[in-house]
């Protein structure tokens, strides 16, 4: 019997169904090192060693080595030569493709790729154009779209190209979301905002009313036109000292002349759709009456509401004993419907805020009054200077009577005036020529309150997501292109936020209020999200920006195996959240963007 030269191999034996004395079923697994040899023409096996006590991975090594595989340390088998964040830009690119955004921008050309990259970059990592240029090489967006090697001149050329395409792009969006087929109500929302400028050479930069609280800074104004659900459709940039009415006139020309839309209903805030703008709304430049009448919905200012309440006018408190909205009429507004609303929650909040501001002003004045009484501050001039420094801080000076002499300072509230203003708390009156058969009173209120969607878009554009401000560009065309890029990025974010609502704190199904005047409420599901913080699978809910950060951890790695010079792109294993994010936008996780 000769056993020399027999082959050694690993054998694994599994025994199942063993029942111990306690009646518990157990399975056992053993591993043996065996040699095969011949004995008188028969093949036999000999157990060389019992490997059962070794860890499973060591047994695997022994088995692989005996089969002739060359084993090397794991760190030496594979080299990751480069790892780039991929998931966040891949999701943005996938949604842009689903929305047809590349085709909307224009024909295939290098400028279109750069413009698309600027829009996706504004969503994934908003920054200045120069910072974005260097960032492209650090994510898959740059090499995949072929823009990683772009120069600053290339970016500015792409911005100029995009600005020249603005009318065509917005006409395409208007056809999607404002045309009668997509928008049976034929309604559009419009509002105006501002952002401050850095530098002083831009022709659009001017001083005006700052909606960002940046007093004394040069700024630009820009008006945003959306569909009734808040999808951005068009944007126009104006000098920083442009008023609301002038911007409204401009957007009406865009809707009528560039989009060719007829019989639209435009919703704008109070102060924007003035009586002068209303009379000009359906009048051509030569003074002739236009056949295609445009409707509108706006709100009255406080003095007009006060006039309606005076001298037993049509607006009286008794109208709201049983309801919180009532339709009235007035000879001051011929041919118009007035929808008066009273929100008691808003009334209580305004009363609280007014009292807090009055008390805060009195607190600021108290030390000055004490100094005058003690003789430490004398003279009507010095007393008036010190008083003027603080009395207007909270914009409540109109509610105080201030009496100053060389030795005294008396500040008293104008209680009658305060009560007169308080009588208007919670009231707002909407005006519209739209007939009741087309839109009832609750529909008018709901349409006006939809302006909150435009305000939400402004928050996304200016601070939450896209960081439009401050504006650093000097040329007028570049400023307009910058705002257009932010508007298109907002359009992309609108759809991403809606698609990813199940993964974020967004209310997926906000309840439709039975009373349009009542404050909006969140659904029980949204409240459960906010309180529980985790979904039923134990995954955390995230904010929109947090979800983008999580998607960025899905990287594309360039892998090189030992003994080769070729690298292979491989994605990291996606998390369940990352997989669902792509499922929700109806796209597979791509290895490359193009």
- CATH top level of the domain at 167-343 and 426-496 is Alpha Beta
Beta content comes to: 15-25%
Helix content: 40-55%
Gyration radius, in Å:
35 Å
Basic shape: elongated
The helix/strand class is alpha+beta
The CATH topology of the domain at 167-343 and 426-496 comes to Transposase Inhibitor Protein From Tn5, Chain A, domain 1
Number-wise, the strands total 16
CATH architecture of the domain at 167-343 and 426-496: Alpha-Beta Complex
Uncertain segments: none
How many H/I helices? 21
Lateral strand order in the biggest sheet: 7-6-5-8-9-14-11-10
Main sheet: strands, sense, barrel: 8 strands, mixed
Tell me the span between the first and last alpha carbons: 67 Å
Q: Write down the overall mean pLDDT.
A: 89
Task: Tell me about this structure.
By secondary structure, this protein is of the alpha+beta class. Among the domains are: about 5-70, no CATH class; about 165-345 and about 425-495, Transposase Inhibitor Protein From Tn5, Chain A, domain 1 (Alpha-Beta Complex); about 345-420. About 40% of the residues lie in helices and about 20% in strands. The protein has helices spanning about 55-65, 75, 85-100, 100-105, 110-125, 130-135, 140-145, 150-165, 165-175, 245-260, 275-280, 300-310, 345-375, 380-390, 415-420, 440-450, 450-465, 475-500, 525-530, 545-550, 575-585, and strands at about 5-20, 25-40, 40-50, 80-85, 185-195, 220-225, 230-240, 265, 295-300, 325-330, 335-340, 400-405, 410-415, 425-430, 555-560, 565-570. The two termini are about 65 Å apart. About 30% of the residues are buried.
């Amino acid at each position: 019997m000769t056993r020399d030269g027999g082959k050694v191999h690993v054998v694994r034996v599994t025994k199942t169904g063993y029942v111990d004395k306690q009646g518990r079923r157990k399975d056992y697994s053993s591993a043996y090192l065996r040699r095969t040899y011949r004995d008188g023409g028969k093949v036999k096996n000999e157990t060389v060693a019992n490997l059962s006590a070794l860890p499973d991975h060591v047994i695997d090594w022994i088995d692989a080595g005996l089969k002739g595989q060359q084993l090397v340390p794991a760190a030496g088998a594979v080299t990751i030569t480069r790892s780039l964040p991929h998931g966040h830009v891949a999701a943005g690119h996938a949604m842009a493709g689903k929305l047809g955004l590349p085709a909307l921008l224009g024909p295939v050309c290098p400028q279109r790729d750069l413009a698309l990259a600027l829009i996706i970059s504004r969503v994934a990592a908003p920054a200045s154009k120069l910072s974005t240029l260097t960032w492209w090489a650090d994510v898959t967006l740059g090499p995949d779209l072929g823009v990683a090697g772009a120069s600053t001149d290339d970016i500015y050329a792409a911005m100029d190209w995009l600005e020249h395409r603005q009318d065509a792009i917005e006409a395409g969006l208007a056809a999607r979301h404002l045309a009668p087929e997509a928008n049976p109500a034929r309604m559009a929302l419009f509002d105006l905002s501002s952002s401050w400028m850095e530098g002083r050479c831009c022709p659009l930069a001017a001083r005006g009313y700052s909606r960002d609280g940046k007093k004394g800074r040069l700024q630009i104004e820009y008006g945003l036109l959306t569909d009734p659900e808040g999808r951005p459709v068009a944007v126009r940039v104006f000098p920083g000292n442009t008023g609301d009415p002038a911007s409204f006139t401009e957007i009406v020309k865009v809707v009528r002349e560039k989009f060719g839309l007829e019989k639209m209903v435009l919703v704008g805030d109070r102060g924007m759709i003035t009586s002068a703008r209303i009379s000009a709304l359906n009048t051509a430049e030569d003074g002739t009456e236009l056949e295609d009448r445009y409707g509108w919905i706006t709100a009255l200012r406080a003095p007009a509401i006060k006039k309606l309440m005076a001298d037993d006018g049509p607006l009286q408190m008794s109208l709201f004993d049983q309801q919180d909205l009532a339709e009235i009429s007035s000879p001051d507004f011929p041919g118009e419907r007035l929808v008066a609303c009273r929100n008691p929650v808003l009334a209580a909040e305004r009363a609280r805020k007014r009292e807090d501001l009055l008390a805060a002003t009195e607190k600021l004045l108290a030390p000055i009054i004490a100094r005058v009484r003690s003789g430490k501050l004398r003279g009507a001039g010095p007393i008036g200077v010190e008083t003027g420094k603080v009395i207007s801080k909270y914009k409540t000076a109109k509610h105080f009577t201030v009496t100053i002499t060389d030795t005294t300072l008396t500040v008293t509230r104008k209680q009658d005036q305060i009560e007169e203003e308080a009588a208007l708390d919670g009231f707002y009156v909407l005006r519209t020529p739209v007939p009741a058969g087309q839109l009832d009173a609750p529909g008018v209120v709901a349409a006006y309150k939809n302006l909150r969607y435009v305000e939400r878009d402004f928050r996304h554009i200016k601070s939450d997501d896209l960081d439009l401000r401050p504006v650093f560009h000097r040329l007028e065309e570049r400023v307009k292109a910058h705002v257009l890029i932010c508007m298109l990025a907002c359009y992309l974010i609108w759809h991403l936020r809606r698609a990813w609502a199940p993964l974020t704190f967004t209310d997926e199904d906000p309840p439709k209020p039975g009373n349009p005047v009542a404050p909006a409420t969140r659904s029980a599901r949204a409240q459960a999200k906010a309180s529980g913080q985790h979904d039923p699978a134990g995954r955390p809910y995230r904010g929109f920006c947090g979800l983008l950060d999580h998607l960025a951890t899905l990287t594309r790695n360039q892998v090189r195996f030992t003994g080769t010079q070729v690298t292979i792109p491989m994605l990291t294993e996606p998390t369940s959240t990352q997989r669902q994010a792509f499922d929700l936008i109806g796209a597979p996780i791509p290895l490359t963007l193009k």
